[in-house]
Amino acid sequence: MSAGHRLRVVLLLWKPRIESDPGDVTTAGWPHVLQVQLSDDATRWEPPGVVVRPGEQVTAAAARVATALGIELPNLRRVLALDERPAMPGAPAEFVLVMDGGWCTDADLVEAPACLCVHDRDCRHRRRWATAEEACATDAALAVGLGAAVGIAPALVVDRAGGGDVISEG
């Protein structure tokens, strides 16, 4: 990671349209994606995530997100996509790892009394299941990660230097 960048882990959690056949995206359609909204920013919905603390393993950071949501991560901790995001006003540039949180349902999620979801501080947030089309419309890394999670495509890297092209890791 270069100077001036921070590493953020985003947990991709999805709810299949047909719970008994979670991989069926051909007849049932794309799954829904869990998003959170912080109480101090009512305009932005995003997948749950945390900034990795100095010296912390990426898998430990992903586990923090899962704990805040009341779920257990799958045994296979996969990175589905990697995205480098440029600095924005008030926020440094980021390397974002989209990690597989697996599929779950409304009953699997619990409301944590104080969560450390996005900004690594106590916050309250709302949750929603967004359609894949809505959740991925402005987030290429999430779209790539969702495709990899449901087995449509291998995990890929989103390349912003090339104008947003997606390149294969394999």
Report on this structure:
By secondary structure, the chain is an alpha+beta fold. The chain is 16% helix and 32% strand. It is built from three helices and eight strands, in the order βββαβββααββ. The protein has helices spanning 58-69, 132-136, 140-149; strands spanning 5-15, 32-38, 49-51, 79-85, 93-103, 125-131, 156-159, 165-168. Strands 1, 2, 3, 4, 5, 6, 7 and 8 form an eight-stranded mixed β-sheet that branches. A hairpin with a 7-residue loop joins β4 (79-85) and β5 (93-103). It is globular.
Portion in beta strands = 25-35%
Shape: globular
Structural class: alpha+beta
Beta-strand segment tally: 8
State the separation between the terminal residues, measured CA to CA.
21 Å
Oligomer: single chain
Which stretches are poorly predicted, pLDDT < 50 over at least 5 residues?
116-120, 162-170
Q: Rg from C-alpha positions?
A: 15 Å
Order of helices and strands: EEEHEEEHHEE
Q: Mean of the pLDDT scores?
A: 79
Largest sheet: 8 strands, mixed
